[in-house]
Design brief:
alpha+beta; Immunoglobulin-like; 4 domains; 5-stranded antiparallel β-sheet; 18 helices; 18 strands; 46% helix; 17% strand
Length: 656
């Protein structure tokens, strides 16, 4: 069976200005004295714009600022014509709202001057897609109706021709003007954009296939293999027909589980599946569901479908012939094995759904069924292999118990998401790590026979596989121990809570010196003869945080930056006010830079012809780009190759 997967095409931006939201505005009069201003936002496909109200600690909300209102007064607050999508963000761990399609905003007013009115101001917004964000951007508007008798518009007394004049005076270094000149990029260095959706498909596919292989080793499925294969071989004297029936049986298993996955997708829909990844209530339900599955695997009870279902399907299989009979046999297997496969399927569907992909459940179930069906077909083609199969016994129940421990550990991941979203503080990082240590120590003890559950057989000795599995479990528990004091635990960083929830941390963050002022960093680099890594980031940039955790915090990257580079991190959404506003010309319009974030955002646009974050550039001491810019890509090896290419170009330029 071939499963065709249509992957999303990431919108990669390399060295160009991106304007994902286009604005238009107008005044509409509903009567002689009343009307409303309307702002229409045209949002590009694949992008979203944040809502008007967001909680503290998250990205920047969309904000309308009215600097001049003459001849009119507003009668209400500005509102959107449709409600934003609301989800709990996995990175910020906050409930955020945004629009991913066109939306309009209105605010009503009444005239105080019969002649007309004038309304000026700007809308500040931030657009993001799956791989990057633009910095908070101001879009000015100037609306008029009729004739206004007076004007109170405030304009700058003068416009500076070059922003560099301000920086030369501030830094006291004549090289500053050169540092701010636009760059041209050499065709050197690796490409950096990664399609993150493509990797998620493979993750779901692998997860489903492994789940199917594990299901084979449960006491509900394993004994069925020789019984089913023997039935097909005895059913027909023609071996080719018997093999054909077994192949059809395997295909029927795949179809049944694939239909189940498609049904889940159709019931929930694409948006609902994405909600599962971030909704706090769903995460609590997933946590409870996995705990119930774990308790079931430990032997407290069996999760079974009503027996009349399997009996009814079994009787149909006996009464029918041909392909329909084989299909009902496969359906019977799916029903009678549910007490073992149900928890595995449930966990698989939870993981597939929380990946946020609409076809995730179908892909996962298809891979699960493929792994489940292969042995039935394989043993029918090569029946002599049945003699080599391990016999059923107590080891099958041990597989269930081991799965119970793993389900219990995985359940904490979902409880952690809910805990962070609501701010309960009951599952801080050290508490989470402590629970995992206990779970995997207990798993190791179970594998060595020191723990015994109700359905376990007596263990006379420890087999070699059990010994090595116990060794892995104990080793993993020991690996987790430094995490109690703040060690990064890179191997499980996708599961454990973020470091900021750690109450006690012996590991100092920031292994290399960072500059947060471009001119100061460039001056330091020139004095110390080092190349510069510019990191355009943002407090509200989700993928910037991902890059910091997955790439910059690794030992290899932090070491090479510390020993060879000067890192300048510029936050384009820093709202700290400048000592004095700076007015510049951009695209024929006067732009006033009022905050530190405005300055760095302008620098990125003016010098580097880019506007999305994360965005990384390697410069020499004259402000020239040494290699192609680097964007969102969590591949550490490629980032190291990019740094190495920059170092080589810097050394080459120094030697010339």
């Amino acid at each position: 069976m071939i499963v065709a997967v249509v992957a999303f095409v990431a919108m990669a931006v390399k060295g160009e200005i991106v304007r994902p939201v286009q604005w238009s505005s107008s005044i509409t009069m509903t009567s002689a004295t009343e009307g409303y201003v309307e702002f229409d936002a045209n949002i590009s496909k694949g992008w979203h714009m944040y809502a008007l109200q967001l909680p503290e600690g998250g990205p920047r909300p969309t904000t309308f600022v009215f600097t001049t209102v003459e001849g009119a007064e507003f009668t209400d607050e500005i509102t959107a014509t449709k409600a934003p999508i609301e989800k709990v963000d996995m990175i910020f761990h906050l409930k955020l709202g945004w629009w991913d399609s066109d939306v309009s905003f209105r605010r009503n007013f009444r005239l105080t001057d019969k002649g007309g009115c004038k309304i000026e101001g700007y809308v500040e917004f931030q657009g993001c897609n799956d791989q990057s964000c633009i910095p908070p951007t101001k879009e000015p508007f100037d609306l008029k109706y009729g004739e206004v008798t007076a004007s109170k518009v405030s304009v700058a007394d003068s416009v500076g021709n070059e922003i560099t004049q301000h920086h030369v005076a501030a830094a006291g270094d004549a090289n500053v003007e050169e540092w701010w000149q636009p760059v041209s990029y050499p065709e050197i260095g690796p490409d950096s954009i990664t399609d993150i959706s493509d990797s998620s498909w493979w993750y779901i596919l692998l997860w489903g296939f492994v789940g199917g292989l594990i299901a084979l080793l449960t006491p509900c499925v394993w004994p069925m293999i020789p019984l089913t294969v023997s039935f097909f071989l005895k059913r027909s004297s023609d071996r080719k027909r018997a093999v054909g029936d077994a192949v059809i049986y395997g295909a029927a298993i795949i179809v049944i589980y694939l239909v189940l996955g498609l049904a889940i997708t159709m019931i929930f829909g694409a948006s609902k599946l994405n909600d599962l990844a971030t909704n706090a209530l769903f995460n609590i339900l997933f946590f409870l569901l996995l705990v119930v599955f774990a308790i079931s695997f430990f032997g407290a009870f069996d999760i079974k479908l009503p027996s009349k279902w399997s009996n009814s399907v079994d009787s149909r299989a006996e009464r029918t012939t041909g392909l329909l009979s084989i299909f009902f046999m496969a359906f019977t297997l799916a029903l009678v094995s549910f007490s073992c496969t149900g928890p595995i399927i449930g966990t698989l569907l939870v993981e597939a759904a929380t990946m946020g992909n609409i076809a995730g459940p179908a892909i996962g179930m298809g891979a699960f069924a493929l792994a489940l069906a292969i042995p039935f077909t394989l043993f029918a083609i090569f029946p002599s292999l049945l003699k080599e199969m391990p016999r059923s016994g107590g080891w099958l129940n041990s597989v269930k118990v081991v799965l119970g421990f793993l389900e219990l550990a995985l359940s904490l991941k979902f409880l952690s998401v809910a805990d962070l979203a609501y701010g309960w503080g009951i599952l801080d990082r050290e508490v989470f790590v402590s629970l995992w240590i206990v779970i995997f120590v207990l798993l190791g003890m179970y594998l060595l026979g020191k723990l015994k559950f109700s359905h376990d057989s007596d263990l006379d000795y420890v087999s070699i596989p059990r010994f090595f599995m116990a060794l892995v479990s104990f080793s993993f528990a020991i690996y987790l121990v430094p995490g109690l004091w703040g060690a990064p635990l890179k191997g499980v960083s996708a599961f454990v809570p973020p470091l900021y929830t750690q109450d006690f941390n012996l590991y100092e963050g920031g292994q290399f010196k960072e500059f947060h002022d471009y001119d100061e960093g460039m001056k330091y680099a020139a004095e110390n003869n080092r190349p510069v890594v510019i990191d355009f980031s943002g407090y509200g940039c989700v993928n910037c945080r991902k890059m910091e955790g997955a790439v910059f915090d690794t030992q290899e990257v932090s070491t090479i930056i510390k020993e060879n580079f000067v890192l300048i991190k510029l936050m384009v959404d820093d709202k700290t006010s400048l000592s004095a506003p700076i007015t510049v010309m951009e695209n024929g319009k006067k732009i006033k830079l009022e905050t530190i974030g405005d300055r760095w955002s302008y620098l990125q646009r003016y010098k580097f012809a880019a506007s999305t974050q994360p965005f990384y550039v390697i410069l020499d001491n004259n402000g020239n780009a040494l290699v192609k810019p680097y964007s969102y890509n969590e591949n550490v090896a490629e980032f190291l190759a990019w740094l190495d290419a920059g170092l080589k170009q810097y050394a080459k330029a120094e030697n010339n």
